[in-house]
Amino acid sequence: xxxxxxxAVAFEARGVSRRFGATVALDDVDFDLRAGEIHxxxxxxxxxxxxxxxxxxxxxxxxxxxxxxxxxxxxPRRRSEGSAAGVAHVRQQLSLVRGLTVAQNIELGRPRRQVxxxxxxxxxxxxxxxxxxxxxxxxxxxxxxxxxxxxxAARAEVERLAAELDLSVPPDELVDGLPLAVRxxxxxLISLAWGARLLILDEPSSALGPLETEALIELCxxxxxxxxxxxxxxxxxxxxxxLADRLTVLRQGRVVTAGEEVxxxxxxxxxxxxVGDLSLLEVRRPDLELGDVRLEADGLHLAxxxxxxxxxxxxxxxxxxxxxxxxxxxNGQEELASVLTGQATPDGGTVRIDGTDVTGxxxxxxxxxxxxxxxxRTAGLAAGFTLADNLIARRVSDAEFARFGVRLRASxxxxxxALAQRFDVRPPEPALRAASLSGGNQQKLMAAREMExxxxxxxxxxxxxxxxxxxxxxxxxxxxxxxxxxxxxxxxSADLDEVADLSHRVVVLSGGRVTDRFGVEEMTxxxxxxxxxxxxxxxxxxxxxxxxxxxxxxxxxxxxxxPQDDGEGATGRHxxxxxxxxxxxxxx
Amino acid sequence: MGKLAELTFWTATxxxxxxxxxxxxxxxxxxxxxxxxxxxNIGLEGFMIIGALTSLYVTVESGIAxxxxxxxxxxxxxxxxxxxxxxxxxxxxxxxxxxITILGVGLTGYIFRLTTPLGAERRQVNILPEIHIxxxxxxxxxxxxxxxxxxxxWLALGLVPVVWWVAQRTVFGLEVRAVGEDPDAAFAxxxxxxxxxxxxxxISGLLxxxxxxxxxxxxxxxxxxxxxxxxxxxxxxxxxMVRWSAWGVAVGSFAFGLADALGTNLRNIxxxxxxxxxxxxxxFFVALIILIIGARRARMPKSLGFNYVPDR
Amino acid sequence: xxxxxxxxxxxGAPGTSGAGDGTRVPRADTSFExxxxxxxxxxxxxxxxxxxxxxxxxxxxxxxxxxYGAILAGSFGDSFAIGETLARAAPLxxxxxxxxxxxxAGVITIGAQGQLIxxxxxxxxxxxxxxxxxxxxxxxxxxxxxxxxxxxxVLVPALLRARLNVNEILSTLLFNEFAFLLxxxxxxxxxxxxxxxxxxxxxxADSVILGDLVASTRLHAGVLAVVVMVALFGLWTRSTMGYxxxxxxxxxxxxxxxxxxxxxxxxxxxxxxxxLAGLAGWLQAAGLLGRLYVxxxxxIGFFGLVVAMLGGARPLGILxxxxxxxxxxxxxxxxxxxxxxxxxxSDVIQALILLGFAVRYAPQIAAIFRRAVRSVGxxxxxxxxxxxxxxxxxxxxxxxxxxxxxxxxxxxGES
Lengths: 588, 312, 415
Description:
- The complex is a heterotrimer.
- Chain A contains 20 helices and 22 strands.
- Chain B contains 12 helices and 1 strand.
- Classes of the chains: A alpha/beta, B mainly alpha, C mainly alpha.
- Chains in contact: A-B, A-C, B-C.
- Chains A and C meet through strand 2, helix 1, helix 10, helix 11 and helix 12 of A and helix 1, helix 9 and helix 10 of C.
């Protein structure tokens, strides 16, 4: 649209709109990325960041609007056309194929024609389209089919790039076995090998520990200094202050602030722009009123095939108390959730609820009042069942719902409508299938089923992950309510913000062991970083959090992250949030 | 019983094993590719039987070369149906595979009855002869047992390294593995998942069609309803057993062929003391044992059996 | 909120590999909507299959109208034809119900063929033992014997599936072969009617023979068992126990977390399907044929599974599907006899109907089969711990989850 083809502008979008059905995801958005800058794209979940990123990457086409890439009109029809044009999109759920090695992944789907202007080191000498194929593909590239895979060349290419970028990416290991951070590095490395001239990083730090985030920032800065512009998507402002040159804020599909210089902006104002209503971020954690010990886990041991399992983990949680179990994903959290709820039988140790031994017996655990919100929502819902059938799953044989072993459908339906309304599941339609609800409402549905009656013990794994602010607050409030009504609550999460928001007390799980315990007020990023990084078990690759709830949609980003020392103490990542909480705590 | 100790018994049995393994090698090789790409094809039996009938009927008219080609194409035609239903229209792979088995058996039964009214002569071809390779086939025992095969068997064995090479050494092989392991990621990497799965399924149809052709042209020489006798399902068992490996397919198929041949050959020796039905059970019994063993160690392609729906 | 537009986790067509970039919008899918779509498209699938069948007929030089006329005459033309249709539909429905119980719990069995043979042998044995008993006692006991023999025949595959994770599709197929060979042995040897040329057994004892319901038809009293079974299955789908089985089929991880024992469900659902297939064998032996033949099972076991699939694993659906398949088969044989057109055409048409259903109902069938397909996956694969599994919208295949936390895919560490 704008006639000037300023070479200093790497990418620009004018008047881009995109709707999904009745929902407007992007509404007349303008965006520009200058050559050699890191441009942060911020906004809450559902603001349209990921939709915009997909449009830039070619994975989605805008309904209207124009795009220009390095001054040229740019109309990719699919992701592969985007990557052929030099746009690399590193998504939140990484897209390396897990059953293959890094070196194999470099060859998989490599654009056959990379455009001129691709980075020197990946372009072959000579000219013409064929010759621009990078080294590993070149040998066979001239022949149309079958293209052979030159393992040696691919390995050499990975090693060379890794050396240039100062990364340690093993070319011959299965992606499956690599830690998340390394996989992310490998994906960035492969993008560059494919001739990326523009990088989009979508919530890259959401599942990283503090040190890993630091390394990521360093990598980004190095890439910028080499002239690769980056669109960095995040909603965590302090991190952006460290690396971004400018930022654009999206809210509900619209640009509310375009290309503002980061240096000198008021982060609190930005946060307000992002969310619209800061009260959503306000946390009203109930005051701690300790009761009797309700959950008692002693000396839990669990051997695991992948991952550290559990090693001598003990945990006591009293009525009214919320304990956050935090650690880098894959350090035993999932195993702990399984063992605490009786789903997995530990090799050693016991779990008691109100004195009743529930070790390895999910049925007993439920009977004694255990409630579970699993991290992977698919594990907790029967997606093909109706709301009504989901909501009675714990109580199907109750006299209220069954006579002589036959279910009373009218009463099941009545119960479902009332319960769904009570927990604000929308729409509260008993005959609707659970699969047709949005992520937030599925989480509410699950909460409704589990917390219909006040639980004795609530184990919630990543309960607010991927939820929009409203749904997130609703779930958070449910967890508080459970504690306030005398339940013992365990929050298990890799997300430090979530743990900081929800917990009274924090337990750090690392390598399957409890490595530290402290009250939430002592939770500082420095302390956590040392504890979590020090014993970080490095085979954690398979279970980064977004994988667990991934497939449904990458638009729902994890509201997670690691704190940097931003001088604010510790608790909040959103500056606005820190401020509101600070205020709150000041008055209480 | 003394015959069991005789060498001729064993040379005949091993040679029979090679012969009976031939259709299995074709079918399992193809299915290996399809399954590696994530397409679980229970309809292998249907592919095979339609290939068996077509190749026989065309061979009678136009000779063996055209006949084999026609058999392969007939298998591919049914595979095309599977591609259309499962890969394109996203229908359930197990239901479709089951339907294709019934379709193949029904269709061939229909054509056979139509062309062979009661009392009429069945169409017949001479089964492919064994090729005598000077030198090799003369090696004592080994030559007769393993190296005197029809060229159909040699073709099957020759395909093994080809399939291995394609799977391990080509980009297409990588793509096949990628779409079977993690189609979402493969798609995001720019692999055309639908295309790769379609090609893999078609290859499986071609090879299963050839496998069926091997039954009529190299083993039996005539067609009769249900002549594949469950070999399509045996092929599925072979694949589990050998963990989707091309070389393994050859070995596994031979194991079944051998069990089959043993059952047949023993019948001539011990039919007085042992019911023939018990001997006929031998290959199935071997299959069961192998299935049990295989279940404990197989690592299957992660998205096997699940269709891929691209988001746009 | 545009959150929903970006794809709800867990949304999307189950059993299909969903889009990582899920841009699907949630779609209401009420049971009412499903039912109304159901009737229309079922008819459509049948019509399309008949149309394709007509093309095949025309291609082979037969008049499709004559052929279909013969099928209709042979299935509903007169009381004998109706009797044939019902007598064929009866075992199909019973096998179908057994297959449906298993399907709903996420277990696929193709072993009905062998279990039916076992059930017919059981009936024969019962007839021998009870040859002097009064029919009022002998008939129900013979039915029981059929069911028990069918159950016994599935016991090994069921235990292998529940304990060692051995794929039940393939193991039950092998047991079909064993049953077929065993019956062949019995009919050529110990049970052979001495004077017979083709292998068949002596007639069953009169005390266990089911009488004809309508004179001059082959419609026997055993078809009343179908009514009972459909009613029982209807009750099952509404019972708390059926709910638990369905829940396990729908989401085994959730079922485990609710304390529902997975292994026992796998085992029991296979046993139930075996018992029903055995009962169908009783119908064949004591009702229709009065003695054992080598091909007593015909292909009832396989088509019973077709019936379960076509009927959506629901009681009335199965009844309708059984009637359809029974009519096609009875009519097909009539067509072969009167018009000389091979009866295999019926199989072709049934296969086409099934394929049409598979497409039209892709999401619904996926829902029924989601667990089943995953179970194929599991049993083809290792003991996969799938707690790290993708969302329903994801590939659904078992992902390497953390181990140790449970272990087996069926019960997660219940032991």
